Amino acid sequence: MADQPVTLATATSASNGIKIERLSAEQTRQTGFTHRWRIPFDTINNSAWTTQGDTVTVTLGSTPTRFLVATAAAVITTAFATTGTLSLQVGTDGDPDNFIDAQDAKTAAVLIGERGGEPVTEAGTVGIASDVLVARFTTQASTGAPSNITAGSVDVLLGVVDLGDIIG
Question: How do residues 39-68 score in pLDDT, each as one tens digit?
Fold first, then answer.
């Protein structure tokens, strides 16, 4: 099994479904989320990625140098279709399930951590050095591969606070 890397900012999508945006001040005030990343299925399936049980780690971007991740959610707007199971987790490159534990990605749903919209663990949700934000998809070891993913889309929402703006 291997991890297949994808950088969302440079990924290609035949469906043109990729979205990377900083939400407006009004949206942030209403929801607590500051950023949205849309990951369509065709950015995580590749005909060469045929090994069952492989993961695909999508790099969303980086945090500011001094940061706090206050809220996290993943909205699966179109259920992912594939053979076997497919799970999604959201976190950092050092702790890929720091914000949202691995959960089923084959059902249209809102995924949040066990503490509601708060990140799953305290460690890693605040830092004084920039960190890499990721969404990791994991296929089933015996009956799934990234190349088998044929449909699906998820919006990852995070509330990322730049503490440098507050404390200088």
Answer: 999 999 999 999 999 999 999 999 999 999
In order of 63, 66, 95, 143, 164, the CA distances from 134 in angstroms are: 11, 18, 9, 24, 22
Give the ranges where the chain is alpha helix by DSSP (H): 25-31, 163-167
* 111 conformational bin, left if phi > 0, alpha if psi -120 to 50, beta if neither: beta
Dihedral angle, C-alpha 67, 73, 74, 77, nearest 10 °: -130
Mean pLDDT in residue range 103-118 = 85
Report the candidate in 56, 32, 142, 48 with the shortest Cα–Cα distance to residue 105. 56
- Say what the pLDDT of residue 120 is: 60
Type of residue found at 10: T
